[in-house]
Specification:
single chain; 663 residues; alpha/beta; Rossmann fold; Glycerol-3-phosphate (1)-acyltransferase; 7-stranded mixed beta sheet; 20 strands; 33% helix; DAGAT; Hydrolase_4; acyltransferase
């Protein structure tokens, strides 16, 4: 979905060399799962590069090769979509691979600097049509500007993604300031705009007087401030809560000796020049921050021993006009080389992925990849039941239609605790992403924290959450998607003590009529289990009795996005707050999806408000019946408690196969 390239001022190995007629200073390279539609016009090269024993054919292009065919490629594009749980290749390349490739890159071939991508590409390199280009920056302004302007001239309606870490962050900001008319999404990873306050300042005078024989020690000194070697070695070690210790040890053992090659990659004279360049670049970028109009996503590490990135993130978020921060408290300076951070996941979770001037929650959505599925949302072994056409209740989701448009309508548990299990089970069993229609406040940029961390709320966006609007619901039905709607909204998810499993639905059957317009299938469902996970001890009424907190809650809600403002009474009372909870030893969540309700052919009938209201009340009644059934039946579940489930079942038993009550 991107074409990725990096730029370097060093000469590249012959495998990246262009033909002798090449006149320009950059080339295009496509990689697996990363590309743009412009790649359909590029010229294939017989050159290939070896990475970790695997070969990857590279493609290059010159400006002379780009003509009307490149600009007319739209006529040849075919409709393409990523499958759910597609392979994004995350974690397959390690720091060792990066250092090995660097040794080849520094071998001179007499050519000019150019764009290259040292990522292994296997199989089909075809990109998704209309994908934006992504450029990763370690180097120089004019060179980058030429590429940006060329890309913008080819596809002026698409954004260009510019990723810069450390020095590259200064470069990205400088280029953005000089090109305010180009639609840029600038991603900064611990940018070196804080150089004047960094640990690098004292190194420069030491280097200038250091004997050449001692320069070999510099890479080891720098390695202590660059980043966490353990996190770097954990890449490709089957990342999980329990990493593969044997693989981790092997990666660490193979990586550390390669640090000595840094003295060859960055000789003493080059390192001194780079530090002086870094100082100049930081000053240049800082003097032009006011001119940056681009959308900025800033990744900041809490354990950056090279730069004061935490404080710098606060400063830049206040200075830049459109800047969102993601804070990673346990990462070091080389955050993009460390395990656990998938840059594409961050871009998706912060709603920064777009193909035109404005983010579209439907057309720009990319389904979760396999790595996101493995490392993402966690569940507690839920019980999923569904209802067949003949009324029989069965284990699993076979009673839910396989094809959309489908609208799941149900009860919203306290704090939306049911969401993760529901979404993950649909992905696992039906290979379907359920698009949750959520409160718009979850998508606002005005975070209450100066340094917000990437959280489960962001992961929900990766798994398809989108703001509740009539337009988004319309687009979901149009695209034959699976949607998830909670008529009770925030009032239900933030209920008071004693209100668990009580519906707070407004008298508004509009979603029924819209579903009928597209012939969507409505599936009512009930879910229980919040009382087996936590006890609500401080609710909204309790908080509003506390003088200091009640003023804070009132002010926060005045500034928040408000829904149903035209209503009166209980339904309109959707005050946002965070309740006080007392955790319990986890129990189990139970879901029952009722018999699907077909609306195909009912559009004319449901245009009449009374008919729509009648079906609306039927859906509500089915949700209540489902919850009553589950509350009664769970009493007979011998595996309701987590202790019983863990002790009584073999470790090899998947959580979705743990037995439950008879149904």
């Amino acid at each position: 979905m991107f074409v990725e390239a990096t730029v370097s001022v060093v000469n590249l190995s012959p495998c990246f060399a262009l033909n002798s007629g090449y006149k320009h200073r950059f080339s295009r390279v496509s990689v697996r799962c990363i590309g743009t539609a412009a790649d359909s016009s590029i010229v294939e090269s017989a050159d290939s590069v070896r990475v970790s024993g695997r070969s990857s054919n590279k493609k290059v292009v010159s400006l002379n090769d780009v003509g009307s065919n490149a600009l007319d490629d739209k006529s040849r594009w075919k409709e393409e979509k990523l499958e759910t749980l597609w392979d994004d290749g995350f974690g397959t390349q390690t720091v060792k691979d990066y250092l090995d490739i660097s040794e080849d890159i520094i071998k001179p071939d007499g050519g000019p600097p150019r764009w290259f991508c040292p990522v292994v590409a296997d199989g089909n390199d075809n990109p998704i049509p209309n994908s934006p280009v992504l450029l990763y920056l370690p180097d120089l302004v004019i060179f980058v500007e030429e590429t940006l302007r060329f890309e913008h001239a080819l596809f002026p309606s698409r954004p260009i993604y510019v990723v810069g870490d450390s020095f590259g962050g200064c470069l990205a900001l400088a280029v953005a300031a000089r090109n305010p008319a180009i639609d840029l999404v600038v991603i900064l990873a611990n940018p070196a705009t804080s150089f004047d306050r960094s640990q690098l300042q004292p190194i420069l005078p030491i280097l200038e007087v250091m004997p050449d024989t001692l320069h070999v020690t510099i890479p080891y000194l720098l390695s202590f401030v660059m980043g966490d070697p353990i996190k770097m070695a954990m890449v490709d070690s089957e990342s999980s809560s329990i990493p593969n210790l044997e693989k981790l040890s092997a990666n660490l053992t193979s990586m550390l000796p390669r640090l000595s090659s840094l003295s060859d990659i960055i000789p003493k004279a080059t390192l001194i020049w780079k530090l002086k360049l870094l100082k100049s670049a930081a000053a240049y970028a800082n003097s032009r921050l006011h001119a940056v109009k681009a959308e900025v996503l800033l990744l900041a590490s809490g354990k950056d021993n090279m730069l004061p990135s935490k404080d710098e993130a606060k400063r830049l978020s206040r200075t830049l006009q459109n800047c969102k921060v993601c804070y990673y408290k346990d990462n070091g300076h080389t955050i993009l080389l460390e395990d656990g951070l998938n840059l594409l996941t961050v871009i998706k979770g912060t709603c920064k992925y777009r193909r035109t001037w404005k983010h579209d929650f439907i057309n720009d959505y990319l389904p979760p990849s396999m790595s996101e599925y493995r490392n993402g949302l966690q569940t507690n072994g839920p019980v999923m039941l569904s209802t067949l056409e003949d009324g029989r209740i069965v284990r699993g989701l076979s009673g839910v239609p396989d094809d959309g448009p489908v609208l799941l309508v149900g009860y919203h548990m306290l704090l939306g605790l049911e969401l993760a299990s529901l979404i993950i089970e649909f992905v696992r069993e039906k290979n379907v992403v359920v698009r949750g229609i959520a409160h718009p406040e979850l998508f606002t940029e005005n975070s209450k924290s100066d340094l917000p961390e990437f959280s489960n709320l962001d992961l929900m966006k990766v798994y398809g959450a989108l703001p509740v609007t009539p337009t988004n619901l319309f687009k979901l039905f149009s695209s034959k998607s699976f949607g998830l709607l909670y008529p009770g909204g925030a009032r239900e998810a933030l209920h008071r003590k004693g209100e668990e499993y009580k519906l707070f639905w407004p008298d508004q059957p509009e979603f029924v009529r819209m579903a009928a317009k597209f012939g969507a299938t409505i599936v009512p469902f009930g879910v229980i289990g919040e009382d087996d996970v936590a006890e609500l001890v401080i609710d909204y009424d309790d908080i509003m009795k506390i003088p200091v907190l009640n003023n804070y809650i009132r002010k926060s809600n005045e500034e928040a996005v408000r829904l149903r403002t035209e209503m009166d009474g209980e339904i309109a009372n959707q005050q946002l707050y965070f309740p006080g909870l007392l955790p319990k030893v986890p129990g189990r969540f139970y879901y029952l999806f009722g018999k699907p309700i077909q609306t195909a052919g009912m559009e004319k009938k449901l245009k009449e408000r009374e008919n729509a209201k009648e079906l609306y009340n039927e859906i509500k009644s089915e949700v209540e019946k489902s919850m009553a059934y589950l509350i009664k039946k769970r009493e007979g579940d011998p595996y309701r408690g987590i202790v019983t489930r863990v002790v009584s079942q073999p470790l090899s038993t998947p959580v979705h196969q743990v037995p439950t009550f008879e149904h």
